[in-house]
Write a structure and sequence with these properties.
145 residues, mainly alpha, 2 domains, elongated
Length: 145
């Protein structure tokens, strides 16, 4: 079974926060080991924040598909290699002139007007779209061999 990153992070969190694991860690490190507790707390925070980031990117990608109809088939037909990556970088660097020339300038302005977290999520959506596009092309080529 192929799990998503979010599912894997949740599994890791559930395993690490299980009472039996915590009890075993305390037996090994001692109940008053502040450094071990700090590391566990930091890991818990990281896993929660990573899930938030995955959710934000998934939401941005879903919006790209549902609201704007930028589906996998659209991306395969209209985005040549590197276009979506270039757009993600341009968005993160807040540089409108680096977006592909044939992209809608009003839509670019709306993306650039988002706050930093919104721009990061949207750029992540572009990267997710490029990943899906490349995976589809690669698998289709392998099937045709």
């Amino acid at each position: 079974m192929n799990k998503t990153v979010k599912e894997l992070l949740k599994d890791a969190y559930n395993i690490l926060s299980h009472p039996a694991v915590l009890a075993a860690a305390e037996r090994v490190a001692g109940p008053y080991d502040k450094k071990a507790r700090a590391v566990a707390d930091e890991l818990e925070t990281y896993l929660v924040m990573a899930c938030d980031g995955v959710d934000a990117i998934a939401k941005a990608r879903t919006e790209q598909i549902v609201k704007h109809s930028y589906t996998l088939s659209h991306d395969v037909k209209h985005n040549v290699a590197g276009t979506l990556v270039t757009a993600a970088i341009a968005l993160l660097q807040e540089n409108p002139s680096d977006f592909p020339d044939d992209w809608n300038r009003a839509r670019i302005a709306r993306m650039l007007a988002k706050d930093e977290l919104g721009r990061i999520a949207h750029a992540g959506g572009f990267l997710a779209a490029e990943y899906a596009r490349l995976k589809f092309i690669t698998e289709t080529a392998e099937d045709n061999e």
